[in-house]
Design a protein that fits this description.
This protein is 27% helix and 27% strand. By secondary structure, the protein is α+β, with helices and mostly antiparallel strands. The strands form 8 sheets. Strands 1-32-31-30 form a 4-stranded antiparallel β-sheet, with no helix packed on it. It has a 4-stranded antiparallel β-sheet with strand order 2-3-4-5, with no helix packed on it.
Length: 679
């Protein structure tokens, strides 16, 4: 094989062409390398001597909601900080975790519950993993509760049914899974669904379970096999918290009735401190600064500071430093900054799903419990109480001398860390229209937050560090709804504990008032019925008493409760009145020919009113009142009996009144029977 020589001029051209291509290739590699470095290595929001670790767990790297990031803006434009993306994620209370170019969270839709992996800068879905069917899709607290955890290239997640899964964080492939409730017979901390986020320390996954011999369990990160299990206290909703006492690694369990300390390596129960008896719950994180541990509780129980002993022997106890009614925490936790605690002191017994919680945002001294300042009135948010200037209950991030807060109303607030006064630097509404209890996280100058409908990425860094090619939205361009305080307008008095069964006295009181409204409507309707022709009297009487009784039942809950200063629930009367035409159709069809609109329209109307009733009860956290939807079970046979005993003409009115009250008693009693059978 021979080669022809290349002419000198042509050779120069070829060499120039190759040089140009080489320069283009080098520039492309340099550009892509710089972009890669910018996205995955160089982080202008971290000091030069700090290695980026992202936000690997619900409370960050050190389980204290602190971020090492700097260059956080001191204020925001009047239109709010730039919005990088907004995304529909569906129901759930899971916060984000972040690493590199990715963020992760849990959520659910009609198809089921998913683990989501999203591009941090664009919000585009990289992968998702289906792990269960929807949880309480139409319940008061729908969707997953726990936040996933990143560790050694793996993503740990916990579902509300007790499923613990381990995925490959790169591709979402399942590595292993366990069911904590079934494997360890856990029955504590699961009444509202399992909510403990995984805690990973030294290749161990620590989970509160609350089973016999398994208050806390430790699983190997590699394969999910049990490393140890210990304790017999029922668990609650606070995840396990690792601490170090004089070089020894410990695990704190903030359980239902006790505060426990375990050795991290062996699981040995070192200390068990009783806190309460009977039903109790804890959701907020403790705060630790060696050797002191601070805990706060809901139900207006306040907070207390303990000193952890340096050595553990039989009979060793925690030393109580102080105890105060100040600073109760419920679903969102306080933070510790330079010897001061910042957080929301909730005044309600529990957080409400129908309105923002009543309380004050406070700063207190860690070692003494003394209050340094407070913000807010503590008034309940009602239609006549303007609380728009209050911080409210909020999830908190500590970074760059500031507190970044996301409150229940969906407002993002920038607060200067200052133990002398409450200094708000900026605030804006980002996810309004519904309450959110999901804490925000901070990653590469961006806050990732969500509520029950949407998730968003908000840039809060200094403007010069936002890439010019990054497309952004204004806060006012985020789809938002205006929050309507239905509870304040409808419930003049509301149950203190939404999840307590109505007492017998309440149930009798409700029946007394609702049946009284029915009887009054039946009697008052006689007046207009007596003014019409004889052949129209029965029809007029029926229309009038149904209208009066329905309005009385609808308004009675608001007006009678305000008058008696006690919660009186009269809405079951509305359901009964809506069902009354259905009973009439059943009675009428026994003697008349069928008519499509007459036979089925009352049934459709009753179904529609029942759906509205259920949704309104859910919106107002009337948890057990749905049981009165079972009213037709008891009313139907009594209604048929009423039809046989009553006359078809307008006579024997006293007998008709008694039969109506008996039928309503059967309707109301069916709801009580369902409550009794279920609970």
């Amino acid at each position: 094989m021979t080669f022809e020589p290349v002419p000198p001029a042509r050779g120069i051209i070829v060499q120039l062409r190759q040089a140009v291509w080489l320069l283009l290739l080098l520039s492309l590699l340099t550009c892509s390398g710089s972009l890669f470095a910018q996205s995955d290595a160089a982080n202008p929001f971290l000091p030069a001597d700090v290695k980026e670790v992202g936000w690997p767990s619900v409370r960050g790297l050190h389980f204290d909601a602190h971020s090492p990031e700097i260059h956080i803006a001191d204020n925001w434009p009047s239109a709010g900080p730039p919005v990088l993306w907004v995304k529909e994620l569906g129901q759930g209370y899971s916060a984000f975790v972040a690493e590199g170019n990715r963020v992760y969270t849990l959520g659910q839709n009609l198809q089921g519950q998913y683990v989501y992996c999203l591009d941090a800068r664009s919000g585009k879905e990289i992968w998702k993993y289906w792990y269960d069917w929807p949880y309480e899709l139409a319940g008061v607290y729908p969707g997953p509760r726990a936040t996933p955890t990143l560790a050694a290239g793996r993503l740990l997640f916990a579902g509300p049914s007790g499923l613990l899964g381990c995925l490959d964080a790169e591709n979402g492939k399942l590595i292993w899974s366990r069911n904590l409730v079934t494997d360890f017979k856990g029955d504590g901390g699961t009444g509202f669904g399992y909510a403990c986020s995984p805690t990973v320390v030294d290749q161990l996954v620590i989970m509160p379970v609350g089973g016999p011999g398994a208050s806390l369990v430790a699983l190997h990160l590699k394969d999910g096999k049990t490393a140890w299990q210990a304790g017999s206290q029922p668990a609650s909703y606070t995840p396990a918290m690792p601490i170090t006492r004089e070089g020894r690694k410990l695990i704190v369990g903030y359980l239902e009735n006790a505060l426990v300390l375990h050795d991290l390596k062996t699981g040995e129960l070192l200390l068990e401190h009783e806190l309460s008896e009977g039903y109790d719950e804890h959701s907020s994180w403790p705060l630790y600064r060696e050797p002191y541990l601070w805990i706060a509780a809901p139900f207006r129980a306040g907070s207390q500071l303990y000193e952890i002993p340096s050595e553990f022997e039989k009979g060793t106890t925690l030393k109580n430093i102080w105890r105060s009614r100040t600073m109760s925490n419920d679903v969102l936790s306080s933070v510790l900054v330079e010897g001061h605690i910042y957080g929301f002191d909730i005044f309600d017994q529990q957080s409400k799903t129908q309105r923002p919680s009543r309380g004050k945002f406070r700063c207190i001294d860690f070692l003494t419990g003394n209050e340094l300042w407070e913000q807010g009135s503590g008034r309940p948010e009602r239609s006549n109480n303007d609380t728009s200037d209050e911080i409210g209950q909020a999830g908190i991030i500590v970074a760059d001398g500031k507190l970044i807060l996301l409150n229940e109303r969906g407002e993002l607030i920038l607060l200067k860390i200052n133990p002398e006064e409450c200094e708000i630097l900026a605030r804006c509404s980002v996810l309004a229209g519904e309450l959110t209890w999901t804490p925000p996280i901070l990653h590469r100058g961006c806050v990732y937050l969500r509520n029950q409908s949407r998730a968003a990425c908000i840039y809060v860094g200094e403007p010069e560090f936002l890439p010019t090619q990054q497309q952004t939205l204004r806060v006012d361009e985020i789809p938002q709804e205006q929050y309507v305080d239905w509870a304040g307008q409808i419930l003049s008095i509301e149950p203190e504990y939404a999840f307590d069964l109505p007492s017998q006295s309440w149930l009798w009181n409700w029946f007394f008032w609702s049946s009284g409204l029915l009887l009054a409507s039946l009697l008052i309707a006689l007046v207009p019925a007596s003014l019409v022709r004889v052949e129209r009297r029965l029809f007029t009487w029926v229309i009038c008493y149904r209208t009066l009784a329905f309005l009385g039942g609808a308004l009675g809950t608001t007006w009678i409760s305000a008058w008696t200063r006690d919660f009186v629930f009269t809405w079951p009367l509305c359901l009964y009145i809506a069902f009354d035409p259905v009973l009439a159709v059943v009675q009428f069809r026994r003697s008349q020919q069928r008519s499509l609109w007459r036979d089925y329209l009352p049934l459709f109307v009753f179904a529609g009113i029942s759906i509205c009733y259920f949704l309104l009860c859910r919106r107002l956290s009337l948890v057990f009142e749905w049981a009165f939807l079972a009213g037709p079970i008891g009313a139907l046979p009594l209604g048929l009996l009423e039809a046989q005993l009553s006359k078809e003409k307008f006579s024997g009115i006293c007998f008709s009144l008694i039969l109506k009250l008996i039928t309503y008693a059967g309707f109301y009693g069916s709801g009580i029977v369902v409550l009794w059978l279920k609970y």
